[in-house]
Amino acid sequence: MFNRLANVSVIDTATNMVVATTPVGDAPQGVAIADLQPRNVPTLSEWGLIAMAGVLGIAGLMVMRRRKAAA
Q1: Distance between CA atoms of 45 and 57, rounded to whole angstroms?
Q2: pLDDT digit string, tens, across residues 7-26
Q3: End-to-end CA gap in the chain
Q4: Which residue range is the domain that position 50 belongs to?
């Protein structure tokens, strides 16, 4: 039996270049993949506005259907 140490390379996917290499020993247990690009995620107050717009939109549709049914 022989010991063979493994390495993990960090690759910048925008350029496909190796930016770092780290030794992980002879029995690595797993690999993590991370996307570090910032995302445009709505804030809590923006989610509130989105939800309010949805509720008002549904209420508006209900009013329109009632008016159409009454006519």
Answers
A1: 18
A2: 888 888 788 899 998 888 77
A3: 87
A4: 6-28+43-70
